[in-house]
Every structure is written in C-alpha cells, then in structure tokens.
Amino acid sequence: MGEIDDHEELRQAVLICASCWKIQPPYDHLMFEFDQWVDPTTFLAWSDGGTDDYLLVDGFCDSCLSDMARQTALSHHRQSVERLNA
Prior knowledge:
- It is a single chain.
- By secondary structure, the protein is of the alpha+beta class.
- It has helices spanning 6-10, 40-46, 62-85, and strands spanning 12-17, 23-24, 54-59.
C-alpha cells in the first residue's frame, strides 16, 4: 500500500471534473486551447480510446466551481435570514 509503480510515475496528470465529468486535456497538446474542458468522448477519441497514459485527478471545472460557490453563498444567505426571522 502506498507504493507507486513505475508506469504511474510516467503518466501525465489530467483533471476530471467531479461534477460534470468534463476533462481538462494536457496543456501541451496543440489541438486544445489553454484551460479548455472537453467531454470524456472527445478526450477518449483524442487519446486513441484509452487513458492508460494519463493519471485522472479529481477536481472541478471553473463553471461547476462557480455554481457551487453561488449555491453555497445563497444557502448561507438563506440561513442568516432564517436566523434573523426566528
């Protein structure tokens, strides 16, 4: 446990949104723009149908992160209003 095999050390990390499942491809690939997010089907087609060369890392895309921040702020606002009205 806790050991990393040689293959895992050589894989390039790519971020996958834990909310919408879009993937941020590696920056060094000319087909994609900087900070572009693509659907899994597009990523698999680009990577020849496999993800063995990539280490998928959970995270959130900017859009989902903004939505979560808005929802959290709205929830906190509602809670503060409820406390004031109680």
